[in-house]
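User: Show me a protein chain along with its predicted structure.
Assistant: Here is one chain, sequence first, then structure tokens.
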Amino acid sequence: MDVKIGNATLSLVLGDITKENTDAIVNAANSGLRGGGGVDGAIHRAGGPAIMEECRKIGYCPAGQAVVTTAGNLNATYVIHTVGPIYKGGTRGEATLLKSAYLESLKQAVKKGSKSVSFPAISAGVYGYPLSEAARIALKTIIEYLKENNSIDLVRFVLFDQAIFDVFSEELQKLA
């Protein structure tokens, strides 16, 4: 599913983010940048040890922020590691932190000269963010950014299963 936002394309696809050939892919990382399960583990496995080597040098990334490493063996040029919030009921600034994770990732992509970026559904897995709310925040943040900035040509959400894809599609239809 593709929609035009200004001069850019916002795309939703069902797939494996480690197979993306966008300039940058975003990793839903933990604050210690240690690798882990889900998207984080898959990116580290597919990208090889060069990514972890750079993560160790960086050391830490707080929730709502983003850092950049090489993409190692991946097709992308960069991996942008962002830390989404752990959902604790929605009363501890989670929405602000989630929005910030997306915005900081976009800022890092632009800083590196990336014209295309692939995102996973940040915080919507083991971090427990309610999926429809996470999708709404993600899509609204990206749409607002693309309307105000023309530095990125393509933002693709790469969603690993049909249920997540369906929720993102439903939310995008409401917003676009």
